[in-house]
Amino acid sequence: MPELPEVETVAQGLRRTILRKKLKGVEVFLPKTVRHGDLRDLVGRTVRRVDRVGKLMLLRWSGEMTLLWHLKMTGQILLARPAETLVKHTHLRFSFNGLDLRFVDLRQFGYVKLVPTAEAEAQAEFRALGPDALGLDHSEFLERIRGRRGRIKPLLLNQSFIAGIGNIYADESLFRAGIHPLTPASDLSHDQRRRLFGAINDVLTEALSLGGSSISRFCDVHGKLGYFQTRHQVYRRHQEACPACGSVIERFRLGGRGTHFCPQCQKV
Ligand SMILES: [Zn+2]
Description:
The chain has helices at 4-17, 117-120, 124-127, 138-145, 152-157, 167-177, 190-209; strands at residues 23-28, 34-36, 47-53, 56-61, 65-70, 75-80, 90-96, 99-105, 111-116, 250-254, 257-261. By secondary structure, the chain is α+β, with helices and mostly antiparallel strands.
């Protein structure tokens, strides 16, 4: 699933291409993709701003309308020339002057919701959303982790704790911080908490600078792949040698997700 760096990569692509453009038309090929509102209400409006919180993207339109957009597992937002043939699994098409914005989603879990901007933050998507992982400072992080029970990896995946981290960046951050994924959050020392905060920031920033990780069909608005996956140190590198110590990286399942770690560098 696209995580913070991937969704931000898409948001940046949109900020560079569709801001101030007026929507000429919209086509919905898979109705369930639109969970709320009528996209035809956007025709004639312009995109004013593109925001992102965690994995959720928000297109702010003139006339105070907001389009919430969640890519979920395999959603892709792609720019295309209007004459280009629609690829398979294209569910939405937004037509601007000389430019199309298309939503392609193989697994069909991605969706949009159109709501008045004043109501956007009252939507269910926001109700259980913590602060964005890249907008959080060190003291806020310490404050949020204080008194948390449960193990650290599921906590990192919990979007109400911090928004934007998924399986890839949880594994990579814990490796860099030298913390075993099953460590109870309440057992982390002050030093481990400090290292974890630094690791999360470093991993997300580095991933963003490389256009994200192209896992599960992820690409930017131009169809270009990211390449942070080539820098993954543990994620999907089980049975390979740890880049820090040479031990064999292990994998186990935690809450149905593959969890990757180095048994030497990340001791229980
Ligand atoms: Zn190691």
